[in-house]
Amino acid sequence: MITTDRHYVIVPNDYNEAGKASSDIKRFLKRLKLSWDLIKRVSVASYEAEINIVIHSIGGYADFKIDGDVIYLQFIDCGPGIPDIELAMQEGYSTATEENRINGFGAGMGLSNIKKAVDEMTLVSDINGTVLKMKFFIREEDKNVG
Amino acid sequence: MKLSEIVNKYHCTIYTQGLYDPDKEIKFAFCSDLMSDALMIMSTVKESGVLEESVLITGLTTNQSVRTAEMLDVEVVLLVRGKIPADQVVELAKESNIILLGTGLTMFNVSGLMYQEGIQGIYSHK
User: Fold this and answer.
1) What's the structural domain count of chain A?
2) What is the ipTM of this complex?
3) pLDDT given for residue A103 in this prediction
4) Which of A117, A124, B83, B123 could form a disulfide with A41 if both were Cys (CB 3.0 to 4.6 A apart)?
């Protein structure tokens, strides 16, 4: 049985380091010879969530855990929160700044991309912060492929 | 197209010489300066192997072009409009096994030329 538990700190507005946690997660998953599709879904969701914390929050962290046949990703930030989650989930809706766009982000696709990639997710937010929890199931056909 | 054809026809600079594989076959491409859009479209590809034969064409010369390619298993990033990446971007590309190229052509022009050569665009698979 595969188990791992990794923790990452995500620094706000640091575009050079943004994506480092997701890169580490992806490289770890690749070594496990899981299916290409599963690794891609986890990587894309993780990267979008990490970028969200970099561009929108005052900082946060990520946890990556595998327990049996479930991959858990948790992204937590310390605010300022998402005022309207339903609106934020809409494709194309963005509160990103010009600086975010110069850095290649702010298309308003982050949360909807995440939703498409995960098997299960919960998102709760208030002014003190946002907690995004994601689950991905490792199915029999995802094992010993890569 | 072979990567060497792309490099020769569009006068590309090869920033990651050690990773360069002239015989690598390229069949697909996607272009955008917004990495969220690249993630949105390219992540819907269901067939394995397609993204490995794709090139991400972008004017974004930051680390995030390389990171986005890495997340998607895209192995080639082509920078357009003569933009030169910073050393740290080149270093990240090397570390992430991404072949980083640059051309003086604009995004529209290089995309059009590649399309004429038979390179297919990646589209959203619902």
Assistant:
1) 1
2) 0.90
3) 85
4) A117
